[in-house]
Amino acid sequence: MLFKLATLALVGSALAQRPANTSICDYYTTALLKDNTAANQATLLTLVVNTAVIGNYTMPNVGIHVPGILAAGTYNGTMVNLLPYFDGGLASSNNGTAAVAMNFLDDGGAVPLMMNKPANGTTYLLTHLYQYFGVLLGCSMQGPSATSAFPSYQGEASQYSVHKYMDLSAAEVGYFITQVGLAAASFGVATADVTAVGMALGSLFDYSCAPPTTVIPAQGPQLQAICIDSTCPVSPNATCAAYPMAMEPLVANASLAMGEGVNSTSSMMSGSATASMMSGSATATMMSGSGTATGTMMPSVTAASGAGKSVAGGVMAAAAGLVALVL
Question: CA geometry: angle at 8 spanning 187 and 178, to 5°?
Answer without folding.
Answer: 10
